[in-house]
Amino acid sequence: MSLHIPRDMPDLQSLFLETMDHDLTAMSKAKLGFVSHYALLEVAKARWSVAQALWRDTLVDAAVFREWIVNLAARSAPARLAHLMAELRERFAAVGLVAGQQFALPITQVDLADALGLTPVHVNRVIRELRGDGVLDVRRKMVSLTDAAKVAKMGGFNDRYLHKGQSDT
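Request: output the structure for the sequence above.
Response:
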């Protein structure tokens, strides 16, 4: 599972695969743009910089997938939630969708539980625990990181895998 945010170009892997092996589902209102594989390949052939940008995006997606595997396999429930929220804060900030330390996250606790490999009841307990500790809060589809540094530390978050600010050339 993965969460894509506005301006992401999900599933570039299928550009070279005949059959997509998964689904994409919008969890909230979404504006979608569709570009045919043929058109993308033609532009990539004609412009090396476009090919590089598409390849880079695919590699960053793979890095995020690997980090999610580590999150599910090696972190406690509070650390999983903290890591995910720290990651989403960085990704939303990169596209100008963070105000202070708040960002909209139109996701239910059931969907959040699925993303974290936990039960909805456990996610609810963890959110209450972190809210009580004054670290973060998730309410009404808004996330507030009241102590972003503590959230990052708690989740073992290091943003290197997001490869922010690196050139596509």
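The chain has a mean pLDDT of 92.
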